[in-house]
TrEMBL record:
GO terms for cellular component: periplasmic space. InterPro entries: Alginate_lyase_dom, Chondroitin_lyas. The chain crosses the membrane at residues 460-479. Residues 67-353 form the Alginate lyase domain. Residues 426-450 are annotated as: Disordered. Residues 1-23 form the signal peptide. One of its GO terms (molecular function) is lyase activity. It comes from the Eukaryota. Residues 426-447 have a biased composition (Low complexity). It comes from Phanerochaete sordida. Keywords: Lyase, Membrane, Signal, Transmembrane, Transmembrane helix. This is Alginate lyase family protein. Pfam families: Alginate_lyase.
């Protein structure tokens, strides 16, 4: 028995030397055309393929997510209305003169609120429709990707059931509006603001997933679900193009405007309005984009914020997504220059030269998917982009999911190393839909999202799990010897 335990510990020690599996990354935004997945024949994407499947399997925890999951209703009284609280608003209850402790709802309704740009108020996630929607979008995307890679029906079934729960099921569907998104709080702040339109920017991920399920003719993606989501999207597009706060967001010249165009164009594509999507992308690149990148590649509107590294990477993700959406509908904007003569590539090149400041080191990884995307489009003949990623992440960049759809991109020799060191991912396992109560991983993900802008990146705990197993075995051996 002692020899078997020792052998097991040796095996565990060997396995623990393998690079840990990535935990799910919530990219700021991404549009993936079906052909980027279905026509991918690059031999160095095996580790990223495995990551996608792993993320699909882990993403179901805490499902299903619905807009109904909140402790109290928005001012309309209808739980089907999406609700969120502005992330940088802080309560000042000196006006209330209360004699007892206030509940979160009372604080929200009665206290005055003040804005502190860049200072995130965790109390504003008491109502967490935004976190649930972001988690939903990731789960739909990765389960659809996993289906395309494996053709295991369970993944497509997951994606379909998640979409149905959030958008279509009578008891849980979301009303197609953001009338109560990013409310500012207080007696006069019980209405939505234009910044709240940003909350649903990740509709782009869901559209990417749906296009892939359509292209692969996934049996679990039924005509009823497809028609229902299309009808919902059409109603929501009507709101996006007519509501006052949506019009204000469309006019925003910084990342808010960029992400608005992400969302609108993607929904138009979903609804089959290709001409509308073309017009939307052309409007962006001939409009607010023209003032977003300076001659040296800086993004002045983002650099002026309290977290410049984060916001440069954030708006880059939106610009890249708009260019990808444009490419899908026949608009080539990759070499479109701003009024200052700069391109998206120039913005990325500049961002790579400015490291995060001491208060922004946790945001460093937000830039990496943009580096991969730019390398795949503009090329990397000198290996500059691959070298940047290798220095920043080591082998991890090759096993990141975005490496799969950001091709061609050099792997710095890491792909072969990972392929020889990492067991093949299971493609036959049947992922199980969660019970509806948030799992620890889901909760951590929601709390680690810095705001609706942030990318939450968490490195997995495979190593820790293996060490724990070995510790248990060692303990059992010690008990045996006593």
């Amino acid at each position: 028995m002692k020899h078997r335990n020792s052998l097991l510990c040796l095996v565990v020690a060997a396995l623990s030397a393998v690079a840990p599996v990535h935990s799910l990354v919530d990219y700021a935004n991404v549009f993936i055309a079906p052909q980027d997945i279905l026509n991918n024949t690059y031999p160095n994407t095996g580790p990223a393929n495995q990551t996608i499947i792993s993320w699909a399997q882990s993403s179901v925890q805490g499902s299903p997510w619905t807009v109904m999951n909140k402790p109290f209703a928005p001012p309309s009284g209808d739980y089907h209305d999406y609700e969120s609280w502005a992330p940088y608003e802080w309560a000042d209850c000196s006006n209330v003169h209360n004699t007892t402790a206030l509940t979160p709802e009372q604080v929200w309704q009665q206290c005055n609120y003040v804005n502190r740009d860049g200072q995130l108020n965790p109390a504003n996630r008491v109502v967490n429709n935004i976190g649930d929607f972001e988690t939903l979008a990731d789960a739909v995307l990765y389960n659809s990707l996993a289906y395309a890679l494996t053709r295991a029906d369970d993944y497509a079934q997951n994606a379909a059931s998640f979409v149905n729960a959030w958008f279509l099921a009578p008891d849980t569907k979301m009303n197609p509006n953001l009338n109560y998104a990013q409310m500012q709080g207080g007696p006069s702040g019980q209405v939505g603001t234009h910044t709240g339109v940003l909350d649903l920017k990740c509709m782009v991920k869901i559209v990417s997933a749906v296009l892939l399920l359509r292209e692969t003719q996934a049996p679990k993606w039924t005509s009823d679900i497809d028609a229902g989501l299309t009808a919902w999207a059409q109603q929501y597009v009507q709101w996006l193009t007519t509501a006052d706060i949506a019009k204000q967001e469309r006019a925003a010249t910084n990342n808010h405007g960029s992400f608005f165009y992400n969302q609108l164009a993607a929904l138009q594509i979903l609804a089959g309005d290709t001409d509308g999507a073309k017009g939307t992308i052309e409007e962006y690149f001939s409009g607010i984009y023209m003032g977003q990148i300076a001659a040296n590649g800086d993004q002045p509107l983002e650099s002026a914020r309290t977290r410049p590294y984060h916001y440069r990477a954030y708006n880059l993700a939106a610009m890249i997504t708009n260019a990808k959406l444009g490419q899908y509908v026949g608009v080539n904007a990759w070499n479109k220059t701003t009024s200052a003569g700069a391109t998206i590539q120039a913005a990325l090149d500049y961002a790579m030269t400015v490291p995060p400041g001491p208060s922004e080191t946790s945001y460093a990884a937000e830039l990496y998917p943009n580096v991969a995307a730019v390398a795949a489009v503009y090329g990397d003949p000198a290996g500059t982009y691959a070298a940047f990623l290798a220095k920043a992440e080591g082998a991890d960049y090759v096993s990141d999911a975005c490496f799969f759809w950001s091709q061609p991109l050099g792997d710095s020799g890491f792909a072969a190393q990972l392929a020889s060191a990492t067991p093949a991912a299971s493609v036959t396992g049947k992922p199980t839909v969660g019970t509806g109560s948030p799992s620890p991983s889901t909760t951590a993900k929601g709390s680690q999202k810095q705001d609706s802008a942030a990318l939450a990146r968490r490195v997995g705990g495979v190593y820790g799990m293996l060490v724990g197993v070995c510790a248990l075995v060692a303990g059992a051996t010690l008990f045996e010897l006593l």
